[in-house]
Amino acid sequence: MIRTKDKGSAAERELIHMFWENSWAAMRAAGSGSTQHPSPDVIAGNGMRRVAIECKSVGDDKKYISKDEMIQLLLFSHTFGAEAWIGIRFSGRKWFFLNPEDLSETDKSHLVSEKIAEMKGLSFEEMINGF
Amino acid sequence: MIRTKDKGSAAERELIHMFWENSWAAMRAAGSGSTQHPSPDVIAGNGMRRVAIECKSVGDDKKYISKDEMIQLLLFSHTFGAEAWIGIRFSGRKWFFLNPEDLSETDKSHLVSEKIAEMKGLSFEEMINGF
């Protein structure tokens, strides 16, 4: 059985590779808990744009993102000078990229379902080409 | 005895903290070997500038940086759109920041000595204030 954490790391490494294949530089963050400061999972740039991405690899058809995670992503992105994105990869599907404001908000978290991702998410190519 | 790797991680965490204290966002990279792609040890930005830093924590009075490490740093920085810096912390001293071209070049590596760091290096404050 593949642990969720390993699956997440493998998905992030795949994403890093996709960026470099498209002439963007990308790097993965050290594991969360490494410092008490906010950090996205992946940061990438191409000399013109910078993107900070919170990555979710999902077995289910939906994923909750805590308000705290979202605040940390927005704080990092705003301070660094990068666009904030949620990158989500449902099992057996390609990546979707969503703007934080496209997620459904509940009391304690933000929800991204496969349906929302299909409706509002961008593909990797659309995201890096600035659609 | 503190392992070199742990010492390096502690120094990087200290640097991350210094950036945030000065209203820059900073993040540490996942351990090298995580992907085959170039990655600096630390990346930081403040909405205006971005810096990619190769960090060295040094017990000795000098440190060699391999040509390959330097090429990887320059490749990442150029592709991402960030300034490339070597951050070096000799035991019991503050950080020095050097431009890659300020290091002495030997056949197989670049050398940064405490003497070179004192002559050509910037303090953290000088580096973030763009001296």
Q: Can you describe what's shown?
A:
Two copies of one chain form a homodimer. With 131 residues, the first copy, chain A, is an alpha+beta fold. Chain A has a single domain (4-128), classed as Trna Endonuclease, Chain: A, domain 1 (3-Layer(aba) Sandwich). The first copy, chain A, has four helices and eight strands. Chain A has helices at 4-21, 67-80, 114-120, 124-128; strands spanning 25-28, 42-45, 50-58, 62-66, 83-90, 95-98, 104-105, 109-113. Chain A has a five-stranded mixed β-sheet. The first copy, chain A, has a three-stranded antiparallel β-sheet with strand order 4-8-7. The longest helix of chain A is centred in the N-terminal third of the chain and has 18 residues, at 4-21. Chain A starts with a helix and ends with a helix. The model of chain A has no long low-confidence stretch (mean pLDDT 91). Chains A and B meet through helix 1, strand 1, strand 2 and helix 2 of A and helix 1, strand 1, strand 2 and helix 2 of B.
SSE topology sketch:
2 copies of one chain form a homodimer.
Chain A: H1 4-21, E1 25-28, E2 42-45, E3 50-58, E4 62-66, H2 67-80, E5 83-90, E6 95-98, E7 104-105, E8 109-113, H3 114-120, H4 124-128
Parallel strand pairs in A: 3-5
Antiparallel strand pairs in A: 1-2, 2-3, 4-8, 5-6, 7-8
